[in-house]
Amino acid sequence: MSEHVDVLVIGAGLSGIGAACHLEERLPGTSYLVLEARDAIGGTWDLFRYPGIRSDSDMFTLGYRFRPWTGERSIADGPAILDYVRGTAAAYGVEEKVRFGAKVVAASWSGEDATWTVRLASGAELTCGFLWCCSGYYSYDAGYTPDLPGLEAFTAAGGEVVHPQQWPEGLDHTGKRVVVVGSGATAVTLVPALAERAAHVTMLQRSPTYVVSLPGVDRVAARLRERLSPARAYALTRWKNVLVTTASYQLARRRPELMKRLIRKGVTSQLPAGFDVDRHFKPAYDPWDQRLCLVPDGDLFRSIRHGRVDVVTDHIDTFTPTGLRLVSGEELAADVVVTATGLALLAFGGIALSVDGVDVHLPETMAYKGMLLSGVPNFAYVIGYTNASWTLKADLVSEYVVRLLSFMRDQGHDTVVAERDPAVEEEPFMDFASGYVQRSLHLLPKQGSRAPWRLRQNYLRDVLTIRRGAVEDDVLRFSHSPSARDRASARAAPGGGPD
Fold this sequence. Notes:
By secondary structure, this protein is of the alpha/beta class. The protein has helices at residues 14-26, 44-47, 59-62, 78-91, 151-156, 185-195, 219-227, 230-254, 256-268, 277-281, 299-305, 390-411, 435-438, 459-467, 482-492; strands at residues 3-10, 32-36, 98-100, 104-110, 115-120, 125-133, 160-162, 177-181, 200-205, 211-214, 293-296, 309-313, 316-320, 323-326, 331-333, 336-339, 352-355, 358-359, 367-368, 372-373, 379-381, 415-418, 426-427, 447-448, 476-479.
């Protein structure tokens, strides 16, 4: 006898808690559970424990639309974000709906019953009418680490190698020589934080990344808070930041050379005279081909100015007992090497999906509005923006799913599925050059060449099409299963119980 709920949410991170809050507030009477593989609420912000961890988006857009961020800093540290997520869960009463240690490994849809059967790693099963995947986009088990020749010689001589995703609690880097391999958001966060206690830190990168300095405290937000209610000040600041980010992105795509000059000017102004800016901070790609890295108050550049940090642009030839030898022949002495080399992409937590006994092969599906999958009924997922805050998209998806469920309830439907149009041409799921995306694109669904199959990285457009657009269109097919109607009647009858 399996436990049955109307909605199962997979993941108790930023997206999953937001989804649960929307269900709690906007669909009263809906039964739901949040399944969390780990033993705590927080997702990314509970998993990552490396020094200096912080947001790579401002908190006025990374925060939920429905709950103001009241912290002072716009670029917040990990513990503050974790407190915010857990505080939201407590404020909206969804903590008791979270089931910990519940790792989902498979989910099978029965069209006859209009029901998902969800199997956990423990062997337990639950059923639901709607499955909502908020498990993120990467593997929680381990990050991506490339082949590192000679690694054994370094560790045998007492050197330590760590990946940020699995940061050991007892690691003490005080007074040590640290090399951080990588130049993405994690690396530029780690480097200045490690430099506070290390003897010296070197950021070793194969190629540069665009790095932009932003104020850690939003002065406009501070002024608005002095004059307006917290909710009003938050809403205005949020929209201000949305518009600024959108304008910056559009300028980068339409006038990339101008954006390159602006970024370079900002970087040069914060680095010491004579620093080789073009070698270390001039990427070969255009801005926003990969995500820009944000550093609050220029902390990375300040560490370089003060001589605590070096940047080296080169390739690793091999590890040695005392550090790393580079292709150029240069040797980097190291006691600790941090491999900030990226994430291992994992769609939908690696869950094996099947529909009426047929396995779902993700590359054969197409993404509808970036949140449903063609041919997979009663299933939604959250994947945030690559050019803006994750939560902007997560909030929109939550609003849409609640509207969709409400529409189905009002119209007497129990099944919805996006039917793919064979005339719509396939395109890669993400138009993004980052290595972690390119390594895994062949494993992901496709997007289409036109709406509603095209995955646009445009919050303003999505506000109109997702938040304001009609639920019914010529793509979604709604129906009701007679078998499911009988089962619902049985549960409602006196003495009725779980399926």
